[in-house]
TrEMBL record:
PANTHER family: ADP-RIBOSYL CYCLASE, ADP-RIBOSYL CYCLASE_CYCLIC ADP-RIBOSE HYDROLASE. The keyword NAD applies. This is ADP-ribosyl cyclase/cyclic ADP-ribose hydrolase. GO terms for cellular component: plasma membrane. It comes from the Eukaryota. GO terms for molecular function: NAD+ nucleosidase activity, cyclic ADP-ribose generating; phosphorus-oxygen lyase activity; transferase activity.
Amino acid sequence: MESRPPPKRRTKRCLVLTVAAVLLLIVVLGVALGVALKRNSEPFKKTFIDRYSAELSMIFQIHCGKIWTAFEQAYVRKDPCKVPMEAYDPLMAAAPFKPACNRMMFWSKTKEVVHDFTAKKDCFLTLEDTLLGSVLDGLTWCGKEGSSDTFTAGCPGWTDCDNNTVRSFWNRVSAAFADAACGDATVMLNGSLATPFSPYSIFGSIEVKNFNSQRMKSLNVVLITQEKNVSNCSNASFKDLQKELDGGIKYNCKEVSEAQLQWCSSSPETPCGSCW
Ligand code: DVN
């Protein structure tokens, strides 16, 4: 017959088993309570989210309505070639740019490469990455005298007249975006051009003129170079750029190959700062 363990050891084993049973019971009860509570809290959570988002979307609808009205009044019922950039002042008052210090990215003749970069690396923001810029980028619109409609065809082209509806919009929002520039700003320019900085471009004729040294500390030029490169950071046009800059804004220039930029864009773990 099997020998029985001494009384002392039997008591100890009994104690351990009792404690384990009690612990198991607490865990089972805890899980059951958690599930019950969760299940009970579900309907309340859904009510909360439904009501909150309904309220939000109503606020957004009212806000968007105001922005639309401010936008439309710039050109509706007007000759599409007689819309100066100031016509969009009420829009800028209704939808001012939030400054994104040290992240604002300007560009000229590099639209594709800059937006490929900012789409993959979220450390910089171009005008077209802002809400207003992204809504209207690539669109055409205009009004005409005697009509309250917005037309998207038959509108004057970019070079058809100076005060055309779309070009005046981009001029006005570019001025506002540059005015909001703060901290270190960056501009991506095209190294395959003989004059990467043109005083006649929007960047040269509007944005540089709106940089304010009260808010903006420096302008970092990133010159995108190709194999058959044409210009580098000692290009004469950059002397003009430096002359145009508001006194007190520091200037520097770095040459970066498009290949290096593409490599950097496609490696999310590479910090933006080491892309050039
Ligand atoms: O800093 C950027 C950005 O903030 C923007 O608002 O202004 C700066 C870029 O303007 P930019 O310096 O004049 O640079 P680009 O490359 O000469 O022209 C920018 C855009 O204006 C072009 O990409 C065109 O837009 P699109 O058609 O590609 O959507 C447009 N643009 C300029 N000249 C044009 C023209 N579109 C048609 N005909 C032209 N002659």
